[in-house]
# Entry
Amino acid sequence: MSQPGPPGSGAAPAGLQAQNGAAAASGAPYSNGPVHSAMMSSQVAVHQGYNSQLPGSYPHLIPAKTLNPVSGQSHYGGSQGLEQTLHRPPVAANVVAPSLRSGPVPQMPAPASQSPAATPRPSDDFLPGVSPLPPVNWQHSYPSMGSQMSHYPPPASQLPLSGNTNVSTNHQYVSSGDPSLQNSYVKSGSALPLRTPPLPTTFQPGAPPGPPPVGGPPLVRALVPQKASLRTAPQPSFSSAVNQEATPQLATKNPQMSRSVGYAYPSLPPGYQNTTPPSSSTGMPPSSLNYPSGPQAFSQTPLGANHLTASMSGLSLHPEGLRIVNLLQERKMLPSTPLQPPVPNLHEDIQKLNCNPELFRCTLTNIPQTQALLNKAKLPLGLLLHPFKDLVQLPVVTSSTIVRCRSCRTYINPFVSFLDQRRWKCNLCYRVNDVPEEFMYNPLTRVYGEPHRRPEVQNATIEFMAPSEYMLRPPQPPVYLFVFDVSHNAVETGYLNSVCQSLLDNLDLLPGNTRTKIGFITFDSTIHFYSLQEGLSQPQMLIISDIDDVFIPMPENLLVNLHESKELVQGLLKTLPQMFTTSLETQSALGPALQAAFKLMSPTGGRMTVFQTQLPTLGVGALKPREEPNHRSSAKEIHLTPSTDFYKKLALDCSGQQVAVDLFLLSGQYSDLASLGCISRYSAGSVYYYPSYHHQHNPVQVQKLHKELQRYLTRKIGFEAVMRIRCTKGLSIHTFHGNFFVRSTDLLSLPNVNPDAGYAVQMSVEESLTDTQLVSFQSALLYTSSKGERRIRVHTLCLPVVSTLNEVFLGADVQAISGLLANMAVDRSVTASLSDARDALVNAVVDSLSAYRSSVLSNQQPGLMVPFSLRLFPLFVLALLKQKSFQTGTNVRLDERIFAMCQVKNQPLVYLMLTTHPSLYRVDNLSDEGALNINDRTIPQPPILQLSVENLSRDGAFLMDAGSVLMLWVGKNCAQNFLSQVLGVQNYASIPQIRTDLPELDTPESARTIAFISWLREQRPFFPVLYVIRDESPMKANFLQNMVEDRTESALSYYEFLLHIQQQVNK
Amino acid sequence: MEAVVFIFSLLDCCALIFLSVYFIITLSDLECDYINARSCCSKLNKWVIPEMIGHSVVSVLMLVSLHWFIFLLNLPVATWNIYRFIMVPSGNMGVFDPTEIHNRGQLKSHMKEAMIKLGFHLLCFFMYLYSMILALIND
# Structure
């Protein structure tokens, strides 16, 4: 909590509030409150084991923020959220009770009583009496929550939670990091006089039980050093207790732990306490700033940014995160579990409220104070966003006034500071604003006078129902227009059949309501419209052959209400594939068709889905083939830029009328995606590309189209959206990456927004940030849902500011950096050339590592020394160089390369990293050791292997997870057991050339393999197709191409690349 | 005759000064979010060719009337104008492209360019004024 208590107010200062916040959060409407709790107990244990976290603390986080993937329910609906809110038991009590564990409090029904407990209380709470409560009690308390609890099946919950760090837990919030955070401080009411008494002792009794006492909120927050289990002198007893408890939990497996340890910064020596700062001038409360003296019980400091330096002094002692790695000596740097983003070095109370890194991520989790420092580090500063990701749980607030800063229009967020009950200070522009009357009432707790516990202030990710001021016009209905290429070439590929079939299957699943409208256009050298007017017995086809001046015949009947004309639509979809089978028209008038579609949709806006199978040859927007196959391999002279501005102009027109164009290109020939892609790029659509699609000859593409279309048609969609990204004064955004149109300096116009789109921005430090400790970033996405509601989804991220180069390096997020560099490299290849872009990628590594070497390392050792945080940087850059977008030497078709570039720009970071550097697992010897347990399912967790052929063996089977595809490579001498028990074939030779499924056999091996594969699939919204590959399979080349650590004819191996970098760095 | 040349140059230069000011105002409107990128760019792109022509005419005129110094002074700017126009990538909507203008600090560099041109044209204005008066007196 950013807001420190008002000095005058009785409430405890920051410490307190934080807790309160937590409480509120937990209680939150966010439906699962109860459920979580159930799980929590288990979780807690886990964490404790690993992170030595306090049990009590846990609840905060989870309830509020965790999304439980398993639960599968989407509590998304606003109404639901609301309801829940109301139901919440009044938790108000906590105000005073700053207890550490307050987290749990919220959940308990009882809490109210506590509220009165003012500061003094804490000590009491600690009393053994409280803590001893058995976990059971805890759980009991939940029931009171009533309805909420029911939402989740407990078992499920466990999983996700444990995964905190795990990838699997996509949904989880950043809070995961929190667990660790929580422990640490007593931050509790300490703000007040309460400085906590000797905590350590207190904890001992209490801790083991884990669960917080029901009746009384425990005041204390444990301080365990987070991950720093290593040193924590102070609370030995504590941790041990915890561990014991934890043991049982181990099974749940949390791969994470080690990881997290790596990132944690060392804590300070005992003696520091975290005092709550009175409302600090900077607006940032707690963290590092104050360490007042005084008898403090706790030793472990929160990791304020400032501490780093201190801790750095003795590097040798440092845990993983501070280690310096010689890449030439330590080759096995790739962790065997999915790489986790670094946890910002913030006070845990802030960090636990921070935005989930999957939604909002910064390349540098320690923001350099000045541009000079940033320049010195030679690392790009930027944000990667996935703002519309499907969330299982999302707090939704309905309120007639949305509280925003009056000068910069920032939405109120967890990182603002409350000066007193009536005023808050914006964390972006530092203006002091009034708290509106309505905001004083907390609907969650039904208490008046606690603005700092409102959900808006307790959640970094929140959705508002926007009142009418946020609408320029009444929310539009969902409108879907499909534009099909029906020229001879298109009919040959046979795509119409599968697309129409998919559409028929998913017609009822299209997001929308009773207002949903749908329409169809087909085109070859002429444009065909279909009148679907109610009352007609069958669709009526209207042909427009004047493509130079397109007009719309009877516009009112071409886009029709889906519900009223459903039978006509179904009839049309059934007959459409047969209508053009005899067509001999080979020309394609895509440009005029797009213009017609645009005219048809411009009154409403909506989504236009275009299927195209060849180069447009007629009318406006006609293109000429530009690819020269003989020159494919050279990096120069390839046409990455559009050849005409027609598509860009049309896209901007579309953007202005809230129309987004999604392009499905199914083409065997060169189709100039560089030009065509503009139509989607600037209208915020997406591009799908199926090279050489053919319904008979290429079943792999057919299946891919089928699955992707299914996801495409049924996924959530937001209409007439705009997104604004704001950042703290002093920082400024200068470049945007993604599919949209930047309408004004920071306003992105997104006619449609979909959950599979990612965005990136680059920033610079315009004014020095010396007088601030924290900076915040806020993205606000205003959109119309398919139900016709106007909503605003707000994400806020808070990061510390640092003043030394070493800290900047320590906080580097290597995945985010690689992702941003990839985006920048795409721009560079378009504006300059591909070879320039490749050089720039290599230089990025060389420059940053030389900066590290010359400015941070005091003694010049031989070898390639890199900070631990950047240990995978060379590997990821090498993987980028070998990615389709940037590779040279191989025969990549121009369209495929451009498609790969589109993907770089439009994919969320997670998937971008998976496609760039896939995960490789050995699956022929899966065992239950270390497996996850979800809902009674056992999911094996094989370690991730390095992408090198040396890790493959002929007698094994390996699964490569490349995001949108899974490839199962079966070695020639693979154990008979695997062949028969998993693949269900007699011998190696009987594996078919192309196979995309695994039989469900009644054997444990098969069950494990299938469990693992389906678990991988569950973690992403789309359906990755599985290819079984054997030596002669056509896909084998793709598989081997992803072995990025190996040498290829035109690219260096990882080791050679390291040597090259070392040479450059040591120059 | 000489006077006529300079009077024409003076008028042309005035127009170019106004144009530079217009560029600056429009760009700063965009910076302050008073207009959107699309309308800003279409407004500015309309004037790119007139500016190029206006400036080239003066330069050529100076060459023809054998004012070497003034010609050489104008040459770099005229060349830059033409180069900039020719080098617009085929997919862009002109020198000012609404989809690019907010990226990579383009707005700032356009602004800087317009400022420099304004300074240059002011300088030229006084030179033409001086030369014109001189020419009139000599007549």
Confidence is low (pLDDT under 50) at residues 1-318 of chain A. The CA atoms of residues 88 and 444 of chain A lie 6 Å apart.
